[in-house]
Write a structure and sequence with these properties.
The structure is a single chain. By secondary structure, the protein is an alpha+beta fold. It folds into 2 domains: 53 residues; 75 residues, H-NOX domain. Helices cover 52% and strands 26% of the residues. The protein has a 4-stranded antiparallel sheet with strand order 1-2-4-3, covered by helices on one side. It is rod-shaped and about 90 Å long.
């Protein structure tokens, strides 16, 4: 085999070495990076599944719909109102008792597990007697 390699032309030898160099410098690191990204993805999926099971989220993520969202959240909070401020941007105002803040935190953690949305900007909290009002902007994905 070595004698065959010695008998090859200079052009064939240089193409062979360039191919080997390309394999070592580009292909192998790309493969290693790909498999490490797959491993990170699997870990994140497992974390999301744990959070979903802890909070009782079942099934697939739903497309955001104002009516279904309102129906789902009215049993958690005293009052829920939704205003569309753009094509895919909605302002949500929720009122709850102060002692239900932990339920709101759990709701906020699992919001993106239930609906294809993301919360934009800061949440605005306003306190009135024993009622807490929360305003947030949600963008459909």
């Amino acid at each position: 085999m070595i004698s065959r390699f010695k008998n090859l032309s200079l052009l064939s030898k240089s193409i062979f070495f360039l191919s080997l160099l390309l394999l070592i410098i580009w292909v192998i690191p790309t493969m290693v990076n790909y498999y490490s990204n797959v491993q990170k993805y699997d870990e994140k999926v497992q974390k999301l599944q744990v959070i979903a099971s802890e909070n009782g989220v079942e099934g697939e993520v739903q497309v955001f719909n104002k009516e279904t969202f309102k129906e789902d959240t009215e049993h958690l909070f005293s009052k829920v109102s939704i205003k569309s401020t753009g094509e895919s941007l909605h302002t949500i105002v929720m009122e709850m008792e102060k002692d239900k803040v932990t339920e709101f935190n759990r709701f906020l953690e699992t919001l993106s597990l239930r609906y294809l949305v993301k919360v934009e900007g800061a949440l605005a909290f306003e306190e009135k007697d024993k009622i807490l009002q929360v305003k947030m902007k949600v963008r459909e994905l």
